[in-house]
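Assemble and predict.
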Amino acid sequence: MRIGIDVGGTNLKAGLTDGDGRLLAVERRPLDFRGAEAFAADLADMAEAVRTAAGVSRETLRSVGIGLPGAVSGGEILYTTNIPMEHVPLAELLRRRLGVPVLLGNDADCAAAGEYLRGAGRGCRDFAVVTLGTGVGAGIILDGRLRGGAASSEAGHMVTHAGGEPCPCGSRGCWEQYASAPALIRQTRAAMAAHPESLLHPLAAERGSLDGQTPFLAAQAGDETALAVCRAYVEELAAGIAGIVNLLRPEAVAVGGGVAGAPEELLLEPLRERVGAMSYARHGGRATRILRAELGNDAGVIGAALLGRVI
Amino acid sequence: MRIGIDVGGTNLKAGLTDGDGRLLAVERRPLDFRGAEAFAADLADMAEAVRTAAGVSRETLRSVGIGLPGAVSGGEILYTTNIPMEHVPLAELLRRRLGVPVLLGNDADCAAAGEYLRGAGRGCRDFAVVTLGTGVGAGIILDGRLRGGAASSEAGHMVTHAGGEPCPCGSRGCWEQYASAPALIRQTRAAMAAHPESLLHPLAAERGSLDGQTPFLAAQAGDETALAVCRAYVEELAAGIAGIVNLLRPEAVAVGGGVAGAPEELLLEPLRERVGAMSYARHGGRATRILRAELGNDAGVIGAALLGRVI
């Protein structure tokens, strides 16, 4: 039995899995950060709670993995985004409390590990998960090993538009500025401003707000403006994925995150076609499959629990 | 003792190395392609010639590696560019003649292996060589293993200008269209057309032609137009290297090929600064060193000879 805990900016989610990564119990709690020691105590308490909820004895617990929004190195948190921690030896703090080995990983890397072992990446050795959310993240597994720690990917900052939009990272033209959910919303707003006749207007009003699903819903209803937005967005997404494909030729790339829930015919199908056209696979080059991530929000917890398999 | 043979579009170069990859003898011959069987016989003959030239007995020869312009899979050539071979079991054809194990690799991958083991990448585990020539190629070594065969990189086709210049590969905005030697020459010609007063004109006339060194020579002589060309070219080069860095965070990236011979202060120094600015290395992220490749034209032969160490 293994426990994975996915640490979000506002919530914690712990899961207990069997050796194959099947989720047997889940616990959710709001994050109440009061310093690193108290944080470690809260995580230990949650691990105990999910173990007890699953009716599993302490002796059968093999390890605990923690997925964190930030960077880790070995058992140390280098920093977390949205939680004020720097250089915290979290693995050791937790191991003292739980008496089992504790592994740390970046949250996108844990999600990739989960999808690799239990989701869309099953059977692959070379695999990447691209997560479309507030930013664009990727977790990469090559030859069965996670590119984690100091080698953890920042795929959202690959340059797909050299000299293009400024990015808060200090560079310009980062993929994330064109392919994240906020980027899609910006692109949709721009199209709405140019097309007052578009169905996007009443649809956004009806839904109370504009989000990453709105252009896909309007396109499904036949709105030409929305369809053009979706096509242009797929093109931006394809540019970055083609970069990953041409550089690494993984067997598969899975797309996850909120935007990935869009209808197959508007996102995954055209994305496959465009990435295929942008991939340099001369006869003999490996063709990379483009898939939808399968585990949704469970990927991070499952991957954290199974981190030891890929590092 | 090991032998490496670098197969170019018009020439063959064989080298005999000791176990540490030191070149003990080298043979060069023009390529005279008369079919796959004759090609294998010529390579075997060259291997024998370089072995004899070095005064080394047949018994001490451990393996032969062949670097090829194209794609390989295991011991099979999938295809070669500029040489008409497809699906040729070259390793077996050669092994029959030489009686030792034969390994095949892509030429850019062999060059990366050579630099990794004996050149700029010594001491790294995660390393890439970017070669600037007719195209832009890269060989990638991660955790000490070459990304070769079906996983061989086509880094020149990463998209750095989404929707940009068409590329013969069928895509648009490929890095190669902006960072290869022919791209640099095109950029130089465009600047010359706009600036008839530039030193580039008399310099190109004096040298008889315009090549990838001309803008650097003119910039060194203080020509502002040439300096602007060099700066813009570094920016294009940096965009792709930053993609490799942000995706993979290797310990070092070495730049090789003809253009890489440019003066340090006009190429490597500004390149380091620009890649640094485009790299998303928050506190804790690994800083990738940008180096010049060290082995020049020997990298391919040495890497071919030592292929077995990285695959």
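The mean pLDDT of chain A is 95.
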